[in-house]
Design goal:
single chain
Length: about 350
């Protein structure tokens, strides 16, 4: 391969990346324009709303850190969607897998000595969350390959069961006697908590999410397992005739995806909440599904979209306080951003066609 060919290929790749960035910026601009129109209709000031979003996520001292804190579990839950999607599967149960990750991480913490060094305790707690989250997702995969049950419906409905499982523990055997009647487990020991980095509430889980993106990107692009997933996702019957273990690939993709969502639960527990409670999931699983589809299941763009949605989620409080908008308005903004991105893709396909 000549140097000119390599240079030409790199130039085309760079041009394609810039085009993608430009399309994202246009889609975000259209989403914000639609949101401004909505704000004007309800009688509020669009400029105040957009300014509140910018101030709370970028200008305020703790704003960028809060965005990254919110983005970390969203990114991991998005990866939990992206991996099964490579095999043509729909994992809608990230919320439940995250909750079961909290259950697994809490159980692991309770079984470990409170004085155990963090360098030993944290990996074990992370394994506990990932294993239980992966096992929970694997149930949906097993039902898909054994009886043909739709994994999207199964994983989604199992999320509601997972919430009830956590409710049982925090109302029952794990309930902290010092919680004044609130349903929550005892706080994690200091050595079982993720260390803080930089300022505010930023913690090591943010780096874990970035590393997970890099690992998933490598596995999907450079390993035989990732290639086999793409084959099955493109045509499962062709993969089966080629001798690929389709059932094993389906089951493993769901389990690995659920493990990442379970890891998100561990990060939320050990990095922010420090004790299991009913509302700990915070809708991060559902936001992860949105992010994965925004990014077309590409880990690189999941990182970008995760930070974007994390910023929108953090800005929701500012919309209520500074712009006098209802809390649900942030969901409208997310929906408009999704519609703008999907509309951009449909237009791009139409032009290419």
């Amino acid at each position: 391969m000549s140097a000119g060919t390599i240079t030409s290929g790199l130039a085309r790749r760079a041009a394609g990346t810039w085009r993608e960035v430009l399309r994202w910026l246009i889609a975000i601009g259209l989403g914000l324009a639609g949101f401004s129109f909505f704000v004007a209709i309800v009688g509020a000031d669009p400029w105040n709303a957009l300014t509140a979003l910018w101030q709370s996520t970028v200008v305020d001292d703790i704003g960028p850190g809060e965005v990254l804190v919110a983005a970390a579990p969203v990114i991991l839950c998005a990866l939990a969607v992206a991996i099964p999607a490579r095999a043509g599967l729909w994992n809608l149960g990230g919320e439940g897998q995250l909750v079961m990750g909290v259950v697994g991480a809490t159980a692991a913490s309770m079984m470990l000595p409170s004085g155990l060094a963090s360098i030993v305790a944290l990996p074990l707690i992370a394994i506990g969350g990932a294993v239980i989250g992966g096992a929970w997702a694997a149930v949906a995969g097993a039902l898909r390959v054994s009886v043909g049950l739709n994994e999207a419906i199964c994983s989604l409905l199992m999320s509601y069961v997972a919430v009830r499982v956590l409710d049982y523990f925090v109302h029952g055997p794990w309930k902290d006697a010092a919680s004044l009647g609130f349903p929550q487990a005892a706080p994690l020991p200091d050595s079982h908590r993720l260390p803080a980095i930089l300022t505010g509430r930023m913690h090591l889980g943010i780096l874990v999410a970035v590393v997970a993106v890099c690992v998933v990107f490598f596995v999907m692009r450079r390993t035989r397992w990732g290639f086999h997933l793409r084959v099955v996702g493109g045509n499962a019957e062709a993969g089966r005739r080629a001798g690929l273990p389709v059932k094993t690939l389906i089951l493993s993709s769901m389990a690995v995806g659920g493990g990442l969502a379970g890891l998100a639960g561990m990060i939320q527990l050990a990095g922010i909440e420090f004790q299991a409670r009913p509302e700990i999931a915070g809708a991060y699983g559902f936001l992860g599904f949105l992010v994965s589809w925004l990014a077309k299941h590409d880990p690189r763009w999941i990182l970008v979209a995760g930070v974007l949605i994390g910023g929108v989620a953090v800005g929701g409080d500012a919309l209520q306080i500074d712009a006098n908008l209802p809390g649900a308005s942030v969901n409208i903004l997310m929906a408009l951003l999704l519609l703008a991105v999907l509309g951009r893709r449909a237009t791009a396909r139409g032009v290419e066609g």
